[in-house]
Design a protein that fits this description.
Mean pLDDT: 88
Shape: elongated
CATH architecture of the largest domain: Sandwich
CATH superfamily of the largest domain: Jelly Rolls
Distance between the termini: 11 Å
Radius of gyration: 18 Å
Number of strands: 11
Structural class: alpha+beta
Low-confidence stretches: 1-13
Largest sheet: 5 strands, antiparallel
Number of domains: 2
Order of helices and strands: HHEEEEEEEEEHHHHHHEE
Strand content: 15-25%
């Protein structure tokens, strides 16, 4: 996998529509301070929920196997569609104190309809779909090493507060199906080769990674 392609895959699609959508809905909601390690579910009593994330570190996980699907950059809006199956087990979890507003997806759609802002919603969902496609491409990469490279570059681009609070191995293991022995072996060899720098298991730097392992 070429380095330029990898870098392209790790860049989240930017959407001005997402910011505009948040600005549109913000006057109708109240933001609350949410403590770290709080879980937020996409369905509460069979009602679809929408969350506007103003600040903080947030991840999306799956309760069925504790798999981490993604870190969620803020500001952001999650749950704006009603297409997340109730039985999926997906949830958001705050990794730090965060500011979040909560409303039902139905209410969010009502606000969008009142303001004739469906085009904003479509553009926002296009950016979401683009990011999901990129992640799927990487997670089905032809080799274990390609998956490792992607996770290392992604971790290095996470906010410093998150990167400093989690070991490199744990970050990768939570987000892949790789075995612990494989991850630890590759990290050790990449560190010995000078391709990455770690202190007490925390990733400090990623230099140019070799094309092949």
């Amino acid at each position: 996998m070429k380095e330029s392609f990898l870098q392209g895959m790790t860049t989240k699609a930017k959407s001005q529509a997402t910011h505009d959508l948040i600005d549109l809905i913000t006057p109708y909601v109240v933001f609350e301070d949410v403590p770290a390690r709080t879980q937020l579910h996409f369905s509460v009593n069979n009602v679809n929920m929408c969350y506007i994330l103003r600040s903080g570190l947030v991840k999306m996980g799956r309760s069925t196997d504790d798999f981490v699907l993604s870190s969620i950059p803020t500001p952001n809006i999650i749950g704006i569609t009603d297409r997340v199956p109730h039985e999926s087990g997906l949830f958001l979890e705050t990794l730090s104190d965060a500011q979040i507003a909560t409303l039902t997806t139905e209410r969010a759609h009502h606000i969008i309809g009142q303001n004739n802002a469906w085009e904003l919603l479509v553009k926002h969902m296009t950016a979401v779909a683009t990011n999901l496609f990129k992640k799927n491409v990487i997670m089905t990469a032809p080799s274990t090493y390609d998956v490792m490279k992607f996770q290392l570059v992604t971790l290095m681009r996470e906010p410093a507060d998150l990167r400093e609070s989690i070991s490199t191995a744990k970050y990768i293991l939570e987000r892949t199906r790789l075995s612990r022995s494989t991850v630890m072996k590759m990290l050790s060899q990449l560190k010995q080769g000078g391709y990455i720098e770690m202190e007490d298991g925390v990733l400090k730097a990623v230099h140019r990674l070799p094309d092949k392992y």
